[in-house]
Design brief:
The complex is a heterodimer of chains A (302) and B (276).
Chain A: H1 5-11, H2 19-28, H3 31-35, E1 42-43, H4 46-76, H5 79-87, H6 89-122, H7 128-140, H8 143-154, H9 168-193, H10 196-204, H11 209-237, H12 241-246, H13 257-266, H14 270-301
Chain B: H1 5-37, H2 42-50, H3 52-85, E1 86-87, H4 91-97, H5 100-103, H6 106-117, H7 125-130, H8 139-149, H9 151-165, H10 168-175, H11 180-208, H12 212-218, H13 228-237, H14 241-274
Classes of the chains: A mainly alpha (302), B mainly alpha (276).
Chain lengths: 302, 276
């Protein structure tokens, strides 16, 4: 195997990539090999053209047309109706809680995710392999089960003696749980690739460990942390399943954006639902563009 | 580097913080669910699994996940080959777009599908209904919602592998007279085998656990459109020990499947590497 920048990263990564984390890894920085135009790529033959046609029709029917329908439905009744739907106090409260908690959770993830990735890569101890599986559990676990799981430690019958069910702490915990793997899994492969020589050089020139970390390691991790943070934020604002049993979905208190959309759908207020959904959709699109820009920039320096 | 006492303290502190964090966020809560499921012994769990609603929900979940994975596998292999091996206008846009389903809220997915495929008001749903195909509140809708949320997983696995293996062998096969299909089955498929299996296991795990999108498109009627995750929600919210044990049992089985999928993936990854 000839090591190209992309293959080294793939090959050196001894850990399983988690369900969406597979996307995280490949989507964050591994993207460079997807985007690097294969030298041997050819133009379409009649058969591959037909395949592309069929694939595009299915993709449109499943993804593009339905998502367009959300935007059309949101704008169907005009700008003032759109604005009214978004500026109702209950919706505003939900959006504020969702975005505020997502920012907070992403900040925690930036610190803890980097720390976890560091320990997984640089530290050696028994049971480390078990931690690898534990990191992936939030991805693989169905979200409704995630809610039940958190409820058992932080709910009414908590062995810790706390009861955070139906509070904003529950929203925070649920977001924290479902976003756990993102930054860990984007930072980990980059940390594995990092050359020890550079750190040793910095140390031999008299830099303290903290200085080395701040000036040598952190800049190399920054793109990975950023893309992990973007994915983590995006995942948090779109979370629904784990909150259903855990947060009580109390208006003005613990109701998040996706729960608000759900209750609008159940009340047959599709335009209102689509208006809030359009906000989430736009954020998702922005995140995809940001990730594309980051992976492009990383590919340029690689 | 010199391992001074201060560094050792930092390392231990970091290790303890990380293990403590994971203990409180993941390990302990997950263990508690397992403990609660079997808190009254094995008999109530087996009784719960004998309920027709539970059997139906798991059958529906399995069949919807099966079809979603079949669709995503065929689509994923095709799209990956097209993205890696061919050039065409809009290739980069498509490359970015196939990731979209991972970033969209499941509730938005459900809403989007209802807006297009609802038999009452949907853009396409009305004509489909007249043609006798009900999508929303029926299994086709459940399959579509499931396929939507797990769509990029196979592609995500295959694209890097296809880049890595290159085209030399495929070109050699073609120049020796192999047809496109023969080349794919004899050369490409064995080379991408582990990536494909990995992607399929991921999709299956994701498909079995989908909740939000399925809740909207299925309506969640017991014995008709209620999947396993919807059953967990319904039973947990009902009163009584039997309902509660049923919710925990279904949740435990879903969690067990998820952990088994993770273990399979963990053991596949190194094999995939040595196979190259």
């Amino acid at each position: 195997m000839t090591p190209s920048p992309g293959t080294v990263e793939e090959a050196q990564q001894p850990v399983p990539t988690p369900p969406a984390g597979a996307a995280t890894n490949a989507g964050g920085l591994g993207d460079r090999h997807r985007l690097r135009r294969a030298k041997s790529a050819t133009s379409l033959t009649p058969i591959s053209g037909l395949g592309l046609g069929i694939a595009l029709i299915w993709f449109s029917l499943l993804v593009l047309i339905p998502l367009t329908a959300v935007l059309v439905q949101a704008s169907a009744a005009g700008w003032s109706a759109y604005w009214d739907a978004l500026s109702s106090p209950q919706t505003l409260a939900a959006l504020r809680l969702t975005i505020g908690t997502a920012v907070l959770v992403t900040a925690v993830n930036v610190v803890m995710g980097t720390a976890i990735a560091w320990v997984l890569v640089r530290d050696q101890f028994r049971g480390k392999r078990l931690l690898e599986v534990v990191i992936d559990i939030p991805f693989a676990l169905p979200t409704i089960v995630a809610g039940l799981v958190l409820l058992s430690l932080y709910g009414a019958s908590s062995p810790l003696g706390v009861n955070w069910a139906n509070t904003r702490v529950a929203v925070f915990l649920a977001f924290l749980f479902v976003t756990l793997p993102f930054i860990v899994r984007t930072v980990q492969p980059v940390l594995l690739e990092l050359e020890h020589e550079v750190e040793e050089a910095a140390a031999s020139l008299g830099a303290s460990r903290l200085t080395t970390f701040r000036l040598v390691i952190l800049p190399s991790l920054a793109p990975a942390i950023t893309s992990g943070a973007a994915l983590s934020f995006c995942r948090a604002i779109s979370e629904y399943g784990s909150l259903v049993l855990l947060s009580g979905n109390l208006p003005y208190s613990t109701e998040v954006a996706s729960v608000r959309i759900m209750s609008s759908i159940e009340g047959d207020k599709l335009t209102e639902a689509a208006a809030v959904a359009s906000i989430l959709l736009v954020v998702a699109l922005i995140v995809i563009v940001v990730l594309d820009v980051i992976s492009r920039r990383v590919a340029r320096y690689a | 580097m010199h391992d001074t006492a201060a560094h050792r303290v930092t390392r231990w502190a970091l290790r303890l913080i990380v293990i403590g964090y994971l203990l409180f966020l993941v390990i302990w809560p997950v263990a508690l669910v397992a403990a609660k499921t079997f808190s009254n012994g094995l008999a109530p769990v087996i009784d719960a699994l004998r309920q027709p609603e539970v059997i139906f929900a798991f059958q529906l979940t399995l069949s919807a996940a099966f079809w979603a994975v079949v669709i995503n596998t065929i689509f994923g292999v095709g799209i990956s080959l097209l993205l890696v091996r061919y050039t065409f206008p809009g290739r980069r846009a498509l490359n970015a777009m196939v990731d979209l389903p991972l970033s969209v809220s499941p509730v938005v997915v459900g809403l989007a599908l209802v807006l297009v495929y609802s038999g009452r008001t949907g853009w396409l749903g009305q004509s489909l209904e007249q043609a006798g195909l009900q999508v929303i509140y029926a299994p086709p809708g459940i399959i579509m919602a499931t396929a939507f949320v797990s769509l990029p997983l196979v592609i995500r696995e295959l694209v890097p592998v296809l880049h890595e293996i290159g085209t030399e062998q495929e070109q050699a096969a073609r120049s020796l007279g192999a047809s496109g299909l023969q080349t794919f089955v004899r050369i490409t498929l064995p080379a991408i085998k582990w990536g494909l299996i990995y992607g399929v296991v991921l999709s299956l795990a994701r498909s079995l656990g989908e909740f939000g999108a399925v809740k909207i498109v299925s309506g969640g009627v017991a014995m008709r459109t209620q999947t396993a995750t919807l059953l967990v929600e319904e039973r947990y919210q009902q009163f009584g020990v039997v309902n509660s044990i049923t919710a925990y049992t279904a949740a435990f089985i879903l969690a067990l499947i998820a952990v088994i999928a993770l273990i399979i993936i963990t053991s596949l990854r190194p094999r995939r590497e040595t196979s190259q």
